Amino acid sequence: MLHYNHMENAIDIFAPRFSNEDAAREHLEALHWSDGPVCPHCGSFNATRLPPQKRKPTKAHPGGTVRKGVVQCNDCRQQYTVTVGTVFERSKVPLNKWLLVNHLLCSSKKGMSAHQIARMIGVTYKTAWFMMHRIREAMKDTDQGPMGGYGKTIEADETYVGGKVKNRHKGKRHGENKSPFHQKQPVISLVERGGKVRSFHVAKVTGPLLRQVLVTNAHRGSWLMTDDHNGYKAAGKEYVGHGVVKHSLGEYGRSGVFHTNTIEGFFSIFKRGIIGVYHHVSEAHLQRYTAEFDFRYNTRKLNDFERSTEALKGARGKRLTYRRPVAAAA
C-alpha cells in the first residue's frame, strides 16, 4: 500500500505519471509487475525487455510511431506490454491521460461527468465516456464472499433511480398517475456497519428477489436491519436477528441501534451524484455506476492517491471491447 503525507497529497497531481507517458507506464509496471514482467498469455516470468519498437507508417502517422515498454516472453515467444490484459489495452489515448482520469474519478466524491473529462484532457465525449466505463469496470469488487458474520450488523434498503414523471416529455409520461417509482430503476444495497457496501441494479423489487440478494451476499449469522418493507419479512427470519425500523410510521431509529442510517447515508451520496453530476443514467449501464459509488465508499478510509492505486490494481483482467450504444447516458 502506498502512503502519502499531506504535502505530497497536495502536489502529487503534478507528478510525472500524470503528464508523461513513460512515467505512467513505469508507475503501472511497478503496481502490476512488482516481481518483474509476467506474461499475460502463459503466466511465465521468463521474459526479455526489448528496445522501443518502430511501427509501420499509417495515414495518421506517416512517419510511424514508436512502441515502448515491449517485453517478449521466452517461453511462449509472445510480445506484450503492461497494458495487455487490462482495461487500457489497445487504447490510443496516452497512458498518462488514463492515469489522470482514473485519479480524477477516484478523488471526486460524487463522480465526474464524461463531458467534464473530455474538456479537461482534450478528447472527444465518446472517448471520455468509454474511458470512464473502463475505469468503472476496474473498480468492480471481485470479492463476492458473504458480508457480515456473527456479531455484525447488515443494513439493507432499496432506492430508485430516475426523474419524476411530471418532468418528462409529454410523449414519455406513461403511467403518470401510478406509483411515484413507476418507470424508475430499482437499486438494492447492503452495507455492513463499519465495513463495505454492495449494490445491485434489479428489474423489480419483490420478496423473492430481496431474499435472493440477501442470502447470497449477507452471512446468516449477521443481524439484519431494514425498514418495514414487507419483502424483508421472510428473509429476516433466516438471520440471527431482524431489526425493523417503521419508516411508514415516521420512525427512523430506536435505542441508537435500530436504524438504517448507514445505508441512507450511502444513498444520499449516490443520489447526489446521479442527480447533480450525471443527471441521467441509462438502465443498461446503471450497474457500473453503482460499482463506482460502491468503490469510493469502500475505500473511504484511504486518501485520494491510495484509492487511485487500488483502482489501477483492479484494471487487470477486466477488458471492455464494445462500442458505445446510441442511447447510452453521460
What does this molecule look like?
The chain is an alpha+beta fold. The protein has 2 domains: 134 residues, no CATH class; 129 residues, 2-Layer Sandwich (Nucleotidyltransferase, domain 5), CATH 3.30.420.10. The chain is 33% helix and 13% strand. It is built from 10 helices and 10 strands. A hairpin with a 4-residue loop joins strand 7 and strand 8. Helix 3 crosses helix 10 and helix 4 packs across helix 5. The longest helix is centred in the C-terminal third of the chain and has 18 residues. The radius of gyration is 23 Å and the shape is elongated. The two termini are 33 Å apart. The N terminus and C terminus are likely disordered.
**What shape does the CA trace take?**
elongated
What is the overall pLDDT average? 87
- Termini separation comes to 33 Å
Instruction: Give the neighbour order of strands across the main sheet.
Output: 8-7-6-9-10
How many β strands by DSSP?
10
Order of helices and strands: HHEEEEEHHHEEEHEHEHHH
Mind telling me the C-alpha Rg?
23 Å
Total number of distinct structural domains: 2
In terms of DSSP E residues, the strand content is: 5-15%
Structural class: alpha+beta
Number of alpha- plus pi-helical segments: 10
- Low-confidence region ranges: 1-11, 324-330
Percent of residues in helices: 25-40%
Please describe the biggest sheet, giving its number of strands, its sense, and whether it closes into a barrel: 5 strands, mixed
